[in-house]
Amino acid sequence: MAFGFPRHFNLFATLEIVTPTLNQLSHVKSLTSLAHNTSHTEASNFYSSLIQQCTRTESLRGLGIVQTHMIKSGYMQLSIANRLVDGCLKCGSLSNARKVFDELPERHVVIWNAMISSYIGHKKSKEAIGLYGKMVFDGVLPDEYTFSSVFKAFSGLGLVYEARRAHGLSVVLGLEVANVFVGSALVDMYAKFGRMGDARLVSNRVGEKDVVLFTALIVGYSQHGDDGEALEVFGDMINQGVKANEYTFASILITCGNLEDLTHGKLVHGLVVKSGCEAAVASQTSLLTMYARCGLIDDSLRIFKRFHHPNLVTWTSLIVALVRNGREELALIKFRKMIRDSVVPNSFTLSSVLQACSSLAMMDEGQQIHAMVTKFGLDRHIFAGAALINLYGKCGNTEMARSVFDALIEIDLVSVNSMIYSYAQNGFGHEALQLFDGMKDLRLEPNDVTILSVLLACNNSGLVQQGCQIFSTIRSNHNIELTRDHYACMVDLLGRAGRLEDAEMLIKEVKNPDLVLWRALLSACKLHGQVEMAERALKKVLELAPGDGGSHVLLTNLYASNGNWSQVIDMKSTMREMKFQKNPAMSWVDVDREVHTFMAGDLSHSRSREINETLEKLFEEVQILGYVPDTRFVLQDLDEEKKKRSLYYHSEKLAIAFALLMSSKKNTIIRIFKNLKVCGDCHSWIKFVTRVIGRDIIARDAKRFHHFKDGCCSCRDYW
DNA sequence: GTAGGGTTAG
C-alpha cells in the first residue's frame, strides 16, 4: 500500500534539529504530490522518529504539524497515533493530547489508560471518570492498568455508587484481585471512603499482598480512628515477611503518635534506621510528629536539626509539634525563621501559628499573621478562617471574629462552632443562640462541640432557661453523646443561678462524676453561701483528688465570706499540714511583646513607684464617680481600713495601672490577663476606670472575657 | 507504551 508520503523525507527523520524539518513538513500539500510509493514500514518509521524527536525536544508545535501531516497523508495507523498522544502527554500538554485523542479514528486501550492516568496525575478526576465512562460506552474493555488508576478518581470525588459499579466491572472481568495493583487501588479507594470493612474484604481476597496494599490499609485504619487496628496490620505485614519502606514508616509512625505509644514508636524508629530509610523526608517528618505526640518535644527538635533544607511540611510539622507541647513562643520563632528561609506557608502552617497566637492571646502578632493569610488568599477559606475566628475570639474581639466568619466562602461545622465559642467566651449569649438556631438553614448538624459551646454561651450570659432546654433536648434525642464537660457546664449554669439542688441532682445522673463536676458545685455553693452542701461537695472532691488544694481554698473562702473565722483557721492549718500550695493570683500585660507579671501586693516591679502613683490617682477619681471598695472580697480577718488597703494592690489593678503608664495612645484598648477569676471588687473598679480614662479595657480571666466599656462590662455583671 | 500507598491544620 502506498501513502501520500514524500520518500526523500526519510532523510529528515534522522536530523538532529527537528524544527526546521517540521517547518518543511508544513508545506505538506506540495510535498505529498511528490511520491506515492512509500511502504507502510517506512511511513511508520518516519513518523515514529519525528514524534520521538518532538517529544524529546518537547515541541508541541512539532507534534501538531506531524499530526496534520499524518491526517492529510491518510496515514493514521493505530500504534503511531497512540504515540502522538503519548508525546503530547510527555510534553505536559493534556489539552493537546486530548485534541489528538479525540480525532483518532481508533484508540487502543493503552492510550485510553495513558489519558486517564494523566488526568488523575493532574488532579482532574472528573475528566478521568468521564473518559472511563466513554471508554466503556465505546466498548473498549478496561484492563488492570485502567482500574489501578481510575479508582483513585472515584475516591477523590467521593462517588461511592459509581465506584462500586466500576468495582463490579473489575470483578466481572476477573481483574479485581488477580493483579495486586488493582487490589491495592481498591483497598485505597474504600479506605478513603472510610469503608474499612470493604477495604478489608478486598484485601483478604488478594493472594500475594505487597507493601503498597498493606500501607493503604494501615493509613485507612489510622485516618479513620482505628490506630490499634493499623498497628495490627503493620504487625501482620512484618510477620508475612513483607518489608516496610519509607511510605509505610511515614504512616505507621503517625499511628504510634496518635496512640501516644512510645514503645512501638521507638521500635519503628529502630526499623527505620535498620532499613536505611533515615534519609527519607516523610518518615523523618513522621518521626518528628511521633515524638511530639508522645510529649518528647526535645527529640522532635533534635530530629528537625538533621534536616538541611526542611520543606514546607517539615516546617509545619515542627510548628504543630511545638504548639501541641505548649511551646508557642518557640513555634512563632520557628515560623519567622521559615519565612526568612523563603518557604511559603500554607493553610496548615498559618492555622497552627494562629493557634499559637490565640493561646498567648497575642493580638498584634496574630493580626500580622492575618495580613499574611490575606496575602496568600486564604482568609476566606475554612481552615485559616476558623483559626482566625478562634484568635479574635480568644483576644476578646468578637466583631473581628464575626467579620472573618461572614467573609468565609464556605461555612462548615467547625467554623460555626468556632464562632459560637467566640460568642460564648465573650458573653454574647443571644448572638450564640441565634447562630445555633441558624444552623438548620445552613444544613449543618450540631455536634458535641457545638452543644458545649452553646451551653457555655448560656452559662456565661445567665440564659438559664435556654441552656436547660437545649440540654434536655439533646439528652432525650440521644443523637449526640453528652460528656462530663456538658454536665459540668450545666452544673455550673444551674449552680450559679442558685438552683443548687438541681445541680446536685444532675451530678448524680453522671456515671462516674469527676472532679470538675463537684468543683463546679462547690464554687456555686461558695457563691450562694451554702456551707452545708459545700462541705458535702468538698468531701466528694477529696475522695477523687485527696491533694486538691483549690477546693480547700474555695471552702476556706466560703467560711471567710460568712465570717466563720474559726473554721477559716482550722482549714488553713489543715492545708498547712497537708502542704497544699495555693495557686497564687497573677495578672499580666503584654507591652511591646514583653510580658509583665503582677501578683497581689507585689511591689517588686522596677516602675513600682509610678504604678503606685497612677493607682492613687485612679482611686481618687473613681471614688468621685461613686466607686466604693467592696471589702467582702477580702478574705482575711483584718480591720476595715486594712481590708480596703489590700484591695488596692490586687494583681489586676496593678496590671491595669502599669498598662496605662506604658501606653500613651488614647484610642487603644488595654488588655490584661488573669490566671484566676477576676475579683468582684476589681470588676466594679475597672468599670469606673473606663469612665475615668475613656478607654476600653479587656480582661481575660481563667473563665472568660470581660469587655469593659463606658462603665459597663460585656458580662453584665454575671460571671 | 499505561498502574497502586506516605508526612502538616480547626
UniProtKB/TrEMBL annotation:
Pfam families: DYW_deaminase, E_motif, PPR, PPR_2
InterPro entries reported in the protein's UniProt record: DYW_dom, E_motif, PPR_At4g14850-like_plant, PPR_rpt, TPR-like_helical_dom_sf
PROSITE patterns: PPR
Keyword Repeat in annotation: yes
Molecular function via GO: RNA binding; zinc ion binding
Positions annotated as PPR repeat: 108-142, 210-244, 311-345, 412-446
Family of the protein in this entry: Belongs to the PPR family. PCMP-H subfamily.
The protein's name in its UniProt record: Putative tetratricopeptide-like helical domain, DYW domain-containing protein
Organism expressing this protein natively: Rosa chinensis
